[in-house]
Amino acid sequence: MRIDIITVVPEILKSPFEASILKRAIDKGLVEIHIHNLRDYTNTNYKQVDDYQYGGGAGMVMMLEPIDKCITKLKSERKYDEIIYMSPDGERLNQSLANSISLQENLIILCGHYKGVDQRVRDHFITREISIGDYVLSGGELGAAVLCDSIIRLIPGVLGNETSALTDAFQDNLLSPPIYTRPAEYKGWKVPDILLSGHQKKIDEWRDEKALLHTKAKRPDLLDEEY
Length: 227
Known about the structure:
Layout: E1 2-7, H1 11-14, H2 20-27, E2 32-37, E3 50-52, E4 60-62, H3 64-77, E5 82-92, H4 95-101, E6 106-111, H5 119-124, E7 128-131, H6 141-152, E8 185-186, E9 189-190, H7 200-218
Parallel strand pairs: 1-2, 1-6, 5-6, 5-7
Antiparallel strand pairs: 3-4, 8-9
């Protein structure tokens, strides 16, 4: 997978890809991350990428021309499956959406800034708009990092255990059941006996039951009416 991220503040995006699982995925050659500074696509001495909005109003707007130049250059080099704009009014990122996008090969992610982008960018270039929640950030960079993390970890070979991502919360619209590790008893606090029994079928049934109860208690909105 190749992901090209367009931003006006590339510094924000460096650290997420320089450590942990994402760095290992890059080092293994399973994903390529390319960060593009939008200011490199301007013709002005001040590298201007924003301007006042027509009709008046507070806040600056990201200009059409540098975004056009950047996306057009990238599209001339390869075919992209999606051109994504990180926006608070996009579709909400969830596990199902992450699963779907993780199957793509080439992505462009445009990080909004200021009051957002000129509407013509959204009309003529963007194929999908994604939000990570109902709140506003200073820019789309952190949202882009969240999106990248959610999809890269699903690529085969990224995680040490191939089945780990398949048992994550939300994969089946359920939260995860309780999990435990050593020691089996600490300060009188014991791990449930069933998890120490070695009976995998009963352990799986216990986990399914606990996942359902946990979801009912904390996120009943995830459940179908039959539950």
